Amino acid sequence: MKPFYRPDYRIVRLWTKFWIRSGGLNPFGRFAMRMAALFTAPHKSRVRLAYLADSGYIAPSVIVDHDELTLGRHVFIDDGCILFKRQGTGKMVLADEVKVFRQVFMETGTGGSLFIDEKASIHPRCQINAFHSSIHIGKHVMLAPYCCLYSYNHGVKPGMLIVDQPLESKGPIVIGDGAWLGVGVIVTSGVTIGENAVVGAGSLVTRDIPPDSIAAGNPATVIKKRQDIPA
């Protein structure tokens, strides 16, 4: 397979800067984003485009159906992502330099809100649903692919179909600054994961994880402290 074609670097730079400054969520803005990315390889190669304009880079294929969305400076949102507000009120805020990679689904609804702080990165196919309580993802947090955060659960009382039961929540989800969640981690409502904590791949987090801890398992439990690891 031939490498991705790039014409003269100076021409590409001028072309990209011209179009990226007109980017946005309206039809022309989406067209401008498509033009800006024309000579840049896909996926992570396009992160740099977000730094060429305060409005960042939002891939043309991104679906946004959210009237309480706030985007900071230099935000990157990759192909196939969905940002959705289902019903009622529910703010969604992506702060400066947040990176959201391919096919991430983020949703808010009644009583819920989502705040992703500066320089956090959400990797492919994560799902983040904030209903009835908030979800706060701190600065420099990394969510590996396929992580799922739900600030609610379905009622399971007998004598009624689960689909007909009201949603329930034990409280907000808070992911502290600098934490790292491995591939496929699931976090349930009412959980706080402390600053700089690490959660192993495939873990189910149902209770709080202290700062600077390494946790894993189903349910996730602390297996060591980061300061116990030799430098």
UniProtKB/TrEMBL annotation:
Top-level taxon of origin: Bacteria
InterPro entries the UniProt entry points to: Hexapep, Hexapep_transf_CS, Hexapeptide_acetyltransf, Trimer_LpxA-like_sf
Record key words, sorted: Acyltransferase, Repeat, Transferase
SUPFAM superfamilies for this protein: Trimeric LpxA-like enzymes (SSF51161)
PROSITE patterns (alphabetical): HEXAPEP_TRANSFERASES
Chain segments annotated as transmembrane: none
One of the record's GO molecular function terms: acyltransferase activity
Pfam families in the record: Hexapep (PF00132)
UniProt-recorded name of the protein: Transferase hexapeptide repeat containing protein
